[in-house]
């Protein structure tokens, strides 16, 4: 141990809990494609408060990942991004590339599904964490390395001191993801954006990573945006939940609001689609059809074609987010009130096979 | 369920139906150099096959103008015997194209089958077949081709046969590589689980999926064959008079390089144009067949 | 009890690890499946669960004779599949079919959907006209529009592609379907549709399912009985009800407690049993009990004499008073949900 000690508490005085740290308004992302412009994100608004975990949930193609890539300015240059991303009193979309580089990593840390995207394969993990430490504290290399070992220990890597001298390729996927989290902690960020951080991992390892993430968030006092398709992960981790569909938020509220009293048929259908481990088997309520293609999107509610509550007004105007059960629980549905007290099986059909065809098939034998 | 439920039109496919071929064609169109090359190449073919008919001079015809430089009457000039060089180049292009396209098709057919069988079965079959391919690849190409052509050569199809007999081994390596990766794909396993025979798997699944890479390779083979034919004819082992080819024309003109440079430069230019355009077309095809390429080029 | 439809007895599958170079000596083996036995009755669904690398997919492929077993037997209706002739297996393929995990990779990108679904009929020479009517019925059955038959697989969504895969597997009217992670590549709302479809097909057509999955929630939903695999071995097996209400093996317990519940209050109040570390290499599995290196019970509750037993003696898969078999010397059922 060296005599130098690094203060484990956050290096800079952070504001009070509840203060807004990140504010995204009117975010739009469009990609060109051979079939016409792809509107991947269509007007996303959210605020992130200090210390909270905002879960963004949605299926593939809902725009949940593109939203955060746009916030971090990590999209290819062909993407057209408009709107505003307020952080630290500045609009991130207007910063120069070099200013943005300073924000990325130090003030906003990003954790990807594949940890290899953020680790350098030619340096040991200890060196990479130590480098992050030295970027923020004026300490000797040895002290920084000690801090790196401490951080590895915090994300529960066994034999942290030995592991610090490993190269990324010598570690398992779960270990690597923990190293990425340790780097994020070393940077002492205000915001951590975790994009499907556990999707590539087995469940037992996922549980370990979620613990490590929680530790990182509490240690740094950062706010977290947790993007995932797994409603279970959201239920366990998120304070507030934003459900996205076809590039737009369709429901926002506390975890309790969204899970117990969903006011958007899509959220309801999603919850009814999940097989539950804690109950004996019951019929699932799949949502018919598939998400709309974001090329040539028809007017009206994008969920309309799949929605059993669908009426003519849904074809004409796309519903805006509006308050439902409380001022903080918003849903984008013309018929939100009709969902009061409704269970998924009351709204969605559980039959999927064509029974005439099935009977015919059962009759003939080739 | 509400009464007002309107049966929505078929919204499952908002993008219009397109066959694989249409997709490939669309993507090809986005490769500008390839499209330009294709146009140039088509013009060249038209010139060689139709232009020769329409042109006022015949390739074998002796005109009274000996050794004139390029003019309106003789755009590529004439040689010392008074033959119109433009007509000569057109005929040379025709023969050279015939040779190279035949080589490409022949070598591709044999090589693809050889490589697919080796790659699909693996094990000792693969080892044996690929050692044979390797053996062919180790032969000093020009020397063996020259020797073979010298003994059997003369007419263009024999030259094509000789070159193809050496080039199929290249194709077999490419085909084997593609098949090796395709073999591990789940749809091949699915076919096996259905009880499909090996022949069916190779012909119905592996070859159609390898077609993209094989076609790309075929274009490159055309360019390679045209260069090898040129070298052989230049060395005197290829096409022999009264037939002619671009290589032979270059060879005949080498003594006139300083006195009548046009005799040398025009056939040379044609060789370069053919090789270049075919390479670009191959490039475009490669991009077009790459299913990863769904976005427009940046 | 009547004869089971499928019985798997002591199946072992080792993949050789070879040295590089010309000679390619065998220098070891990945023990993908080590002595696995189970039975499947007609009309029943057996869930084979485990994390990646536990050998569940390899087991499924051995059952279908897509890869040969190193040792052990697979019996279908009492007939041995291991070492059967090619022609014999071809006949049996009509009764044993598989649906793959990846709906993108398991459909030939160069074939229109009609052709894909008709392929099994052609291979087995059924229907002179290529079964055009049959393909229509199959497409309707799985919820696809027959008009879309001329389109290529890449034009369909993941869920639709998986339905194409199911239609293809059903074309020969099999008795046993091996479902290898059929829904894990799909979005939740789509996954539910495929699961319900499988339910309906089973009750209408009397199919038996061997359902391979890493997702315990899905398995609880669909399976009658479950076998939990770890590092090439079955560690616990029982009815769905037994396994979820009274899991006895520490690995099953850890697995159940690691899966997050989509219910915020329950999820935050749950008891957690966590395992440490990562999966050991299947080329060099731990001695004795294969789970001991990550076992929370081994690490926290056992005395050193008890631990010695775990290190030296591989536990057998037998009922240890929990009403269903588990392979832990110190099995003890716990309620976790």
TrEMBL record, chain A:
Q: How does it sit in the membrane?
A: Peripheral membrane protein
A single GO molecular function, which one? ATP binding
Q: Which Gene3D superfamilies match?
A: P-loop containing nucleotide triphosphate hydrolases
> Keywords of this protein's UniProt record, alphabetized?
ATP-binding, Cell membrane, Membrane, Nucleotide-binding, Transport
PROSITE patterns of this UniProt entry?
Answer: ABC_TRANSPORTER_1, ABC_TRANSPORTER_2
Q: Name one GO cellular component term.
A: plasma membrane
Give the GO biological process terms.
peptide transport
For whether the record's keyword set contains rRNA processing, the answer is no
**Where does it live in the cell?**
Cell membrane
Q: Where's the ABC transporter domain?
A: 24-271
**Which family does this protein fall into?**
Belongs to the ABC transporter superfamily.
Q: Which NCBIfam families match?
A: oligo_HPY
Which protein are we looking at? Peptide/nickel transport system ATP-binding protein/peptide/nickel transport system ATP-binding protein
Taxonomic source organism: Pseudonocardia oroxyli
UniProtKB/TrEMBL annotation, chain B:
Source taxonomy lineage? Bacteria, Bacillati, Actinomycetota, Actinomycetes, Pseudonocardiales
Q: In its keyword annotation, does this UniProt entry include Membrane? A: yes
Q: Does the keyword Phosphoprotein apply?
A: no
One of its Pfam families is BPD_transp_1
Domain of life of the source: Bacteria
Quote the protein name from its UniProt record. Peptide/nickel transport system permease protein
Q: Which family does it belong to?
A: Belongs to the binding-protein-dependent transport system permease family.
According to its UniProt entry, the protein's GO biological process terms are:
transmembrane transport
Q: Any idea which UniProt keywords this protein has? A: Cell membrane, Membrane, Transmembrane, Transmembrane helix, Transport
SUPFAM superfamilies found in the cross-reference section: MetI-like (SSF161098)
Q: Where in the cell is it found?
A: Cell membrane
Q: Where are the transmembrane segments?
A: 33-55, 99-121, 128-149, 155-175, 206-228, 262-282
**InterPro entries, alphabetically?**
BP-dependent_transpt_permease, MetI-like, MetI-like_sf, OppC_N
List the membrane topology term(s). Multi-pass membrane protein
Residues in ABC transmembrane type-1 domain copies: 93-282
Q: Which organism is it from?
A: Pseudonocardia oroxyli
Q: Name one GO cellular component term.
A: plasma membrane
Automatic annotation (TrEMBL), chain C:
Q: Where is this region: Disordered?
A: 304-337
User: Which CDD domains did the record assign?
Assistant: ABC_NikE_OppD_transporters
Per its UniProt record, what InterPro entries does this chain match? Answer: AAA+_ATPase (IPR003593), ABC_transp_ATP-bind (IPR050319), ABC_transporter-like_ATP-bd (IPR003439), ABC_transporter-like_CS (IPR017871), Oligopep_ABC_C (IPR013563), P-loop_NTPase (IPR027417)
Say which family it is in: Belongs to the ABC transporter superfamily.
Q: Which positions are tagged coiled coil?
A: none
The taxonomy runs: Bacteria, Bacillati, Actinomycetota, Actinomycetes, Pseudonocardiales
A GO molecular function annotation here is: ATP hydrolysis activity
Q: Which residues form the ABC transporter domain?
A: 17-256
Show the PROSITE patterns listed in the entry: ABC_TRANSPORTER_1, ABC_TRANSPORTER_2
Q: Which GO terms describe its biological process?
A: peptide transport; transmembrane transport
Keyword presence, Transport: yes
Q: Which UniProt keywords apply?
A: ATP-binding, Nucleotide-binding, Transport
Q: Per its record, how is this protein called by name?
A: Peptide/nickel transport system ATP-binding protein/oligopeptide transport system ATP-binding protein
